[in-house]
Fold these 2 entries.
Entry 1:
Amino acid sequence: MSGGLTRTRVLIITGDLIGERMAGPAIRVWNMAEALAPVCDVRVVSWNRIERSSEMFETVHVRESDDRQMSHHEQWADVIIVQGTSFRTFPSIARTQKIVVADLYDPFQLEQLEMNKYAPPAEWADEVTKAVSLLNEQLARADCFLCASEAQRDLWLGGLSSMGRLNPTTYVADPTFDSLLRLVPFGVSEEPPVQRAHGIKGTVPGIAATDKVLIWGGGIYNWFDPATLVEAMGLLAEDHPEIKLFFLSARHFNPDIPEMKALTDTVETAERLGLIDRTVFFNDSWVDYERRADYLLDADLGVSTHQLHAETRFAFRTRILDYLWAELPIVATDGDSFATLIRERGIGRVVPPKDPSALATAIVEMVCDEEARGVARANLRVVREEFFWSRALGPLVEFCQNPQPAPDRDLVMSRSGALGGTSFERILAMPRGPRRDLALLRHYWKQGGPALVRSKMLTRRERLQRD
């Protein structure tokens, strides 16, 4: 479509807030748009708020229930890039005949296994079912897929295989499937970070300008293990009172993201050890995206600790990229793709999970050993360049300049009537509220009559009282 003077029109859809405070999906969308804008006409649409604009591309807000408005954008586009629940939120996108790119950098079906594991079993199962259904719909329909790491590539090749997308037609077109499933990691800016004011040192009460600061560069979620990190700080408190741990964003700016048990456990651990506002500090607000350099450049070490489970194996910790951007040596738990990078490229230290003693030893080495820090910093400069957004997004830009439908498009479209999940899965994907409640009531009545409805209502009442 852009072989001549005509530029490809690319529509990027997200359910995340586009503003000064942005989480990973919105940051990724924004950088996609900036990378594509020089060679394509780009329009970013969010059914969340739009609080930021660009001279390079359009930003448009569409209400979650307004499929008529979204259909105008669908008609305008040549290529549509979707994240998360886009297909379920807007029927016009689910029905589109346009070329679709599914961004699968966030395997959120595995996140749901951790995020909701403390919920009632039925609710936990519902959320996982919904996530799997949403992802299967994308795997069955899209013309091109994006993943963030080689581990994720293995995950999604398995998913595509189970959906019948690794078939003779796609195999003849490309036996490696590299053109169908493209490696497009999260990236970092080519512009080095610039500090305009101190965000931590000499600014946060209890942290002096001469202290050594560890930064936890994001939210506290159930798939992480910050409590073990706090226990390591307890081991260091007496001999190294100058080492301070700063949680950049203890609470999410989006009220739809619930406070998780991991945060409660971490705060309780810090209180039990008497470390709060002494060597462990929680920032209760979410730092604006453009201000994060003020905090990163006040840190001496980036830290990331997690538990070992399926989410860990396939996760792509975007906070690690901020550490790369700021050339911060890193101490992290083993088990994910970044642990391999840290170990093989010498940009920090990797420790076993749930081992506060090993964690404390690694922290002291990477904070106090200037030779070790110097080696890590030199290696970081090289590794950082490999993750520049311009390089990371290259395969997406290449595709959008000459977009092609999937080789098995005829097969995909012939199955389109089966897309969308079961009726129950479609209900679960609806926004929480009266409309969803009424749909669930009708579903349970059809399935089990008044007895099932009473059981579900009782379960919900108990959950609300417990919360």
Entry 2:
Amino acid sequence: MTFYPTARTTLLLVALAPLALLLAAVAEPLWVLAPLVGLVIVALVVADAALAGRAADVRLIAPGDAEIGESLALTVLADFAGRRGTGSPEAALAVDPRLAAGGRTAFPLAYDPASASWSGTAELLPNRRGSAAIAALWLRWPGPLGLAWRQRVETFDRIVRIRPNLAPARSPALQMLLRDAQFGLVARRIRGEGSQFEALAEYEPGMDRRRIDWKSSARHVRLLAKEMEAERNLPIVFAFDCGQAMCEPVEGLPRIDRAVSAALTTAFVALKAGDRVALFGFAARVLVATPFIVDTRQFRRLHAAAAELDYRPEEANFTLALSTLAARLQRRSLVVLFAEFTDPTGAELMIESVARLVTRHRVLFVVLHDEELEAMTAREPASVQAIGVAVAADALARQRMLVLARLRRLGVDIVEAPWREVGTRLLDAYLTLKRGGGIG
């Protein structure tokens, strides 16, 4: 435990220095008073530090898990013995930059009369997934004169596991959707939707005429229509490009984390609907490839696997990744591909790989709407440099539109939305494909 002077002590010494010079100039024999005053101030600092007491107990309360983009509370509790004075203690934590910019956060402590202890809380916002360490805690408190700080340093080996954000899956709107019978715990047959034949029923006004079975109607001399059942047990793969383009931030969080949050929400609904879900992540090589999950009780396995999707400062190898994925899939599946493209060569290789995949599987391509690029294009240029930026941004936007148009011509379904809406749009696309029987 150490002590050091406060800012008040420094200001006091600075204020007394001119007086000491003036005293030495006016009455030279009295110059010895200046060092004596300095010694008195030093003695007061030492006495103030002694009267500040000691920290009898210091505790850190930190959760073991957190979600990216969601508030995380770190609480410090302190008990003091022999302390005099009313100044508030202060705490500082050395944390991983994933938890706080610069790897440091500081906050004051307040007195709680009920527990007769001091406590303070730091509200942090995790900005990247992974394991974040809390390395050290600095606690300091002033003496009664405010001339000295007493300080105590505690080292820790705490790890906070930052996982993907599941807040959309817990939203009230989604919970209302999951109350529907088709998403219940017991799988029920849902007639009238899908493409799987269930039974013949007498045709009634309002039914889709395309479902009339003319042969059976002629045989029974009355109009009969096919009743279809929504398909279940459909394989769905969420594939993530973890390359450098997907690591760029969107409103403070990397694109990959926005994508993971939207995918996990849709995966949870798909499991409730009786389908099978797997995750597949890649960059220059395959990073994560999970088996198919068939039960919502195993959803935590998907959550844990999504947390392992690392940030890679490298270009994604779509040729290797999508050919590997195609070899793993034994039956027709829905492949939901989250990707980003920045250069023509990478986009061309991606289109070729998707073209081979779409011959056997249904592909849903999800891309975040680039609001920053759009703003650069629409901004009124104020200089020659701004004109160059606007022209380059417009060229990238046109290239982006061209790539998406080529993917549509291949038969790929496209979901392009701002990050706030991508989860809802993806869920709508999945439900539309499922109702229309366009997956299996």
